[in-house]
Fold each of these.
Amino acid sequence: MSEPSRVRGRIQRAPENFLSDADIREVAAGRRDFLRKSFLAAGAAVAGGAGVARASEGDPNILNLPEHSKILGRPVAERAYGVPSQYEQGLRRRESPGLTRVQAASVSFAPLQGLFGIITPSGLHFERHHQGWHDIDPSKHRLMINGLVKNPKVFTMDELMRLPSVSRIHFIECGANTGMEWGNVAVPTVQYTHGMLSCSEFTGVPLSVLLEECGFDKKAGKFVLAEGADGSSMTRTIPMDRALDDVLVAWGQNGEMLRPENGYPLRLVVPGVQGVSWVKWLRRIEVGDQPWATKDEAIHYIDLMPDGLHRQYTSIQECKSVITTPSGGQLLLDKGFHNISGLAWSGRGKITRVDVSTDGGRNWRTARLETPVLSKALTRFNIDWVWDGSPAILQSRAIDETGYVQPGYGQLRQVRGTRSIYHNNAIQSWKLAESGEVSNVQIL
Ligand code: MTE
């Protein structure tokens, strides 16, 4: 079946206005740079007493107290709102240069290669705006519910936030995530292949509570339309059974109010469904009896099939996974023990298993799923690996509670062709060279 010799892709780097080699190194480093330094220092120290003495000048010597152990530190509340360490500046959202013509209608990718666990820090949550973001005054923001309802209402934020709220952890993935890779390898790092993905604890009121409150028409009301308050006329149809299931009208993200870039003060949370339906700066919900087929449902966010037809309303993000470390652009320092770590998720429920291959899909081992394993949330997996120093192809394959198995590129392309943009959930392959360098490749 798939053998390393059948690797098709090569990194296509460096055309003008794409990423430079220096960019790629910076993106890939993230926290790995820190690991690299501490690994080298520890290596020197454990090489016996002489090792400590041999540590190069400037290396921390554990026998000497550092300056900061002898003086007063900085005062509390010097930073009324905490920020990451100065040594973590490499870990940030990034735009893919040249991806879009206007920065207000663009994407910033989350640095998956440097994150731990399953929660995305709010400041690193990916952004996708069609017409830029706004920091809207919550005292002036309103949510209207109209259409097939007995009592159309306009809610203030205060009125919404008085209602009984729930908090739930869910992933959000843009339908276009991994979209650049449909034809062949296009980008070098996991930040760009999979970084339109984040996971947060969202807090809000179930949409079902608001619909009940407004007395929606239970017979004729088959769909809702969600509308945002930005200039993009972002409107999405959501079937009523889903709207009544687990959809939230949310104001909270990871214990605080939503960030402006992510929809402050109000956004829709539609678990398991592609990001475009998670309407930000939510201002209106209309109840209707048929889908609206708006521009973002009829022209965009549709799947171009091999026969030239388009599939519409394919909203669910199917089961998918990716190894985040080691991943494209990173460097393994040496052979020996390595922890292979990654993320798995499914729009249809919980992840039940993740298998990992280090030989391009010939052999698979089952990874550990770290708790919590939640429905429609990211799941962290880890597996121990001893690298013998020879070339390897690393892959992960996730299975969800419906029994769906993440497909390989060959399987996916048979059904979907190569010219689509959305809903690419193929198995990702990272090639590890003898030098320790990791690069993006595709295996059919
Ligand atoms: N809502 C509005 N009002 N305007 C937008 O441009 N972008 C959508 C969705 N909601 C968008 C929006 C898309 S395409 C995605 S993938 C998600 O928001 C991204 O959410 P995030 O920016 O919080 O990551």
Amino acid sequence: MKIAETKQETRKIVKKWKKQGLSVGLVPTMGFLHEGHESLILKSAAENDKTVVSVFVNPMQFGKNEDLEDYPRDFERDCSICRKAGADLIFHPCPQEMYPADFFSYVNVDRITEGLCGSDRPGHFRGVCTVVSKLFHITTPDRAYFGQKDAQQLAVIKKMVQDLDFDLQVIGCPTVREADGLAKSSRNTYLSPEERKAAAVIHRTLEYAKEAISQGQRDAGELKKELVSRIEKEPLAEIDYIELVDGELLQPVKVLKKPLLIAAAVRVGKTRLIDNYFWE
Ligand code: AMP
């Protein structure tokens, strides 16, 4: 497995592969890898001749008062996870490599970036779309792998690829969870033991939603009320949002029908956690 810190070196390696007719999968990450990331790398390695994993904590997608400085990092460990999962190249640039001082260009996707995490985190998706566009240009993948855990991000990237004619396939991968259902996340390390226990309320509540829908619940307002009250019963949890939206453009719905996304962002202590249930 190779490690490249520059765009130039990465391009050189990928071009060589392409010349040999090899297919390339890309897994963009912010590092501090866990089994969720690993599942994406394994899938890419199974579906492509070569797999590139990018490890870059992207400053552009963090707000001023967010956790950019505290975001956990362990590149040595990331390398060993990538190697074991079958990655061929890690692209590990520094911020200046991605954003030199004279950087003025951004990628915006409208409308589906406005609700959910977009309203809580202004500029977040502009940062995501800009960095992911750059990664697509640098690594020219045939397929790119994203987790369903970040459902809005996945929908936004799919839209961006469609609207801006990127020549690649975006592949959504199922959320990998802890034994009690909590979605694996690099940010779970921020949780105290008490908070970690409390955080299970998010998935439990989404499981309730799934069950209610399978029993015939179709009233979005009624279901939302019930979901809010279930999360509010957990004293350590504070809701940022819980929304029931259509699964494509992520607009709020009144009557529940497929494809439906129930997305939640909940603060447990100081840690903001997201999770969702997708009914399709
Ligand atoms: P991050 O490093 O948090 O930016 O995540 C990098 C990629 O891994 C994104 O496409 C995430 O959606 C995906 N991912 C993060 N957590 C999980 C998880 N628990 N299961 C599956 N994919 C995940």
